Amino acid sequence: MQQSLPRGFGTRNLPALLAAGGECARLGPSGQGAEMSETFGELELREWSDAAVARAYARDFAQASQMCVPGLVAATGAETRRATDVLDLCCGHGNVSEGLVAAGASVTSADFSPAMLDLARARVPQATFVQADAMDLPFDAGRFDAVTIGFGLPHVPDPPKVMAECARVPKPGGRIAYTVWHGAEKTSALATVFKAIAEHGDPDIALPPGPGATDYAQPDIAFPALGAAGFTECQLTTIPSAWTADDPAAPFRFFIEGTARGGYLLRNQPPDAARAIKAEVEAWTHATCGNGPPWTIPIPAALISATRV
């Protein structure tokens, strides 16, 4: 089942965007005409450095991302000892690092958010932690056997630059494995929330230009970018990740409390708009997710992996 949604999830010019097949060319997450002094990278760093946002993501939203950890670990080869020294980039609260350590890997965990690194250090004391810019990594070429990125790629201003760094730091034959949430091509709470924002949100509330939130879940975007960076043998697997919740409006709460771009858009809505967005999300859960409580709420993910040439 597909859901109509503008690429990048902006709220301006919705009729034209939807009429164009739900895509917004390369406008990124904001709509046309947004005037902002803050860049996309600055907004992401500010939001994810908020300890309350980081804790809410780890408490609620990560119930779904946790379901992707076994696939990421397996894709690196850590379980078979093919990869023994792994960089977990954009490590967040450390759930992927934890899985890699459990598989026997030596793990270096990097993130730009001090708040997330605090959570990760407490969760995985066996890992080595570095605050770092994913587009300019402080590691020597050929240092690692593999690189993982659990949902971090859409949060950087220039994903191809991240891919180039991810091709520089592993040895030849090393692996990359990353996850990104699927968008409107799948039945997804993510697509539902941003569609509700687009339909009911204040059109003057927009994000600064940046990458689309689900661009790199699409093989026609991801595979050429990986190839240009120096990877081959690209593969995509869909993981049927989901939340289990007693509240049919849980996706609204998970996004407003525990995400950066979605949280920014939702937290700044006028009260009437926020209520309308929440009501649409709740109605979607009742219509799509069966009888509850509890409800199993889908938010599927793309797991993409490749091998360094």
Describe the protein in words.
The protein has helices at residues 14-19, 40-48, 51-65, 69-76, 95-102, 114-123, 159-168, 189-200, 219-229, 250-258, 261-267, 271-288, and strands at residues 85-89, 106-111, 128-131, 144-150, 170-181, 231-239, 242-245, 295-298, 301-308. It is α/β, with parallel strands linked by helices and 309 residues long. It has a domain at 35-186 and 208-244 and 298-308: Rossmann fold. A seven-stranded mixed β-sheet has the order 3-2-1-4-5-9-6, sandwiched between helices. It has a two-stranded antiparallel ribbon with strand order 7-8. α4 packs across α5. The radius of gyration is 19 Å and the shape is globular.
CATH topology of one domain: Rossmann fold
> Could you spell the SSE succession in H and E letters?
HHHHEHEHEEHEHHEEHHHEE
- Average of pLDDT: 89
Give the total of beta strands.
Answer: 9
The class by helix and strand makeup works out as: alpha/beta
What is the overall number of helices? 12
Main sheet makeup: 7 strands, mixed
| Unreliable stretches | 1-35
Range of helix content: 25-40%
Task: Please report the first level of CATH classification, the CATH class of one domain.
Answer: Alpha Beta
Examine the secondary-structure arrangement and name the CATH architecture of one domain.
3-Layer(aba) Sandwich
Distance between the termini: 36 Å
Radius of gyration, CA atoms, in whole angstroms: 19 Å
| Superfamily (CATH H level) name of one domain | Vaccinia Virus protein VP39
Which descriptor suits the 3D outline? globular
- Could you tell me the strand content as a percent range? 15-25%
Strand order in space, largest sheet: 3-2-1-4-5-9-6
